Each structure stands twice: as C-alpha cells, then as structure tokens.
Amino acid sequence: MAEPRDAALAVLFDLDGTLLDTLEDLGRSVNEVLEGHGFPPHPMDAYRRFIGDGVAMLVERALPAEAVRADPSLVPRCVEGFREAYGRGWDVASGPYPGIPELLDALVARGIPMAVLSNKPHPFTRRCVEELLPRWRFAAVLGDRPGFARKPDPGEALRIAADLGVEPGRVAYLGDSSIDMETARGAGMIALGAGWGFRGASELLAHGAVAALSRPIELLGWVDRGGAVEG
Ligand SMILES: O=C(O)COP(=O)(O)O
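^ phosphoglycolate phosphatase, sequence as received from the core. Prediction below:
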C-alpha cells in the first residue's frame, strides 16, 4: 500500500494504452507497411512492446534489424508509409478503455483539470482525443512535435503543470509504460500505472509506479485522499 500523501489537484494522462486502446489500429498500420516492403508482419501482441517511444522507434523495432542497418533511408520511408496507413485506419478499432468515460466524468465533476501528453505524432494525438474522447475538455493535448523532447524527458509534463498552476508533486500522472513512469518520476509527479494498458503492472511497478491500478476509477483515491481507496 502506498504512503498517504497530499491529494492530487490535476491529472496528466498518457494516451495510447492508457486512455485509448489503439493497439490494433497501430499494429495493423505498421504491418501494412512491413508487408508493402516484403517484410513479415508481427502478431498484435508484439506491438505492446514496440509502441511507446514515438513513431520512428515503433517502425524501427518492427523492421528486421539487418534491413535497417543495410539501408539508412528505410526507417524514414516506412514512417511516411505509416503516417499514410494510420491516417486511413486510426479509428477502425480504437476507443476508450472500459471505465475511462466514468473516470473522466468523475474528474470533471470534482473540477480537476486534465491534460494529455503523448509520444504519438501531435496531429494524430489531437485527432484521437477530439474524435474518440469528444465529451471531455482537456487543458492541454500534446503529442510528439518537432523541436520538443519526447517522453521520458519531463520538460513538457512540467510545462503543463506550470500552465495549470499546479505544483508537479500534486499532479497524478497516469501511464501504461516504463517511459511514462520515468517521465512522471523525472517531473516529480505521482506516478500511477495503468495496469490495463499495453505493458502490464509488473513493468510499471519495476519502473517506479506508486501503484499499478487495475481499474481507471481507482485513480480517484489519489484525488480524493492522496492514496489508494481502502478495501
Ligand atoms: O505512440 C507512441 O509512441 C506512444 O504514445 P503514448 O505516449 O500515448 O503511449
């Protein structure tokens, strides 16, 4: 059980694997690019480990290592192919995880400001939030943009906290990967793991999660009393 602490005054969310289950649309889009280049596709589960460090790393992890070594232009070309394929199929199977709408409603009811920070390319991040989470207002929705460091760099997370006027230590950061837990810890935020996401509870706890939640609504414990709800 985590130590009780000051209650969170704001919530910063990761997107892929935390608010939205985007695995199938991301994996299918990369597989389409791989097959277009004559490389073998991966089973969807493999993408749980590939996603998280941005699109170039996603593509690089999916490609055969020898092919990447042999042709430096392969990753950028496949990234372009991915943008095209994902642009066509980003919303085929993606949507909020069970319990996310209820959590967001409960945070709105409490007047808790919410923001999204993703390593997904910024335009796709905006589109996913606008179209798959249309009912909720987020104070900031930021994806990967040229000129800004990706997570686990804590810079953008800290800027969001500053813009909200909330001390980093009073921000609950909910994410589903080691990258997110490192970002949260680097920013001095309350690192909460989304156990339903792409990577699972043991990776989250090994990378410094204060707790790995099994259901989204459990986050309210940190907002209402600064720790897990008893029982
Ligand atoms: O697309 C990625 O690389 C990861 O996106 P996320 O930061 O929302 O998990």
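The first helix runs from residue 23 to 36.
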